[in-house]
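In response to reviewer comment 3 from the previous cycle, which asked for concrete evidence that the modeling workflow produces usable outputs, we include below a single protein chain processed end to end. The sequence was submitted unchanged, and the resulting structure tokens are shown without manual editing.
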Amino acid sequence: MTGNVTVVDHPLVQHKLTLMRERDTPSAVFRQLLREISLLLAYEVLRDLKTSLITVETPLAETEAPVLKGKKLCFVSILRAGNGLLDGMLDLVPSARVGHIGLYRDPETLQPVEYYLKLPDSMEDRSVVVVDPMLATGNSAVAAVQRLKEHGARTIKLVCLLAAPEGIKAMHESHPDVPIFTAAIDSHLDDHGYIVPGLGDAGDRMFGTK
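The workflow returned the following structure tokens.
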């Protein structure tokens, strides 16, 4: 962990990420790999969930055992590519509530434009995990977290597949209280705001669009 950034460097995560970077990996395989990586990332991101003890009857004896306590988690996907990470995390925690924030990046200014927002109630009482595969300029993530805070969210984490130093810097400057979890920190952004070496546009590669 560096500062407020955790790089999940598990060998399985790194192996699957390498396969996703390959330009010839088909969309169906790309989506499946992203779903698998999201499960592994979720394991790390959610390791500090609070638990309480309940009494259960095993086939052999009565015992006290831990269960999750408190309000349900809330996963918030930054559309559209965030849904690739969301699906895998819901496989792990199917009871989590889900929110969506629709943002697209203006190709001229690289600034985010919001077109959709739908969140569960009582955000102030929930542990929120924002998911978006690419933390590039950081503008979309910064805007999404700001909107969540405006709706009362107080405990927020950001999960991405890849991060650029520029995006991490933008998040730290705007939301230093939000931890970042990623599978890798790449070199830099190119002139179009894409992560280098990266893996291209995650949404296009997921859905076979350009």
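The chain has a mean pLDDT of 92. We consider this sufficient to address the reviewer's concern, and the full set will be provided in the supplementary archive.
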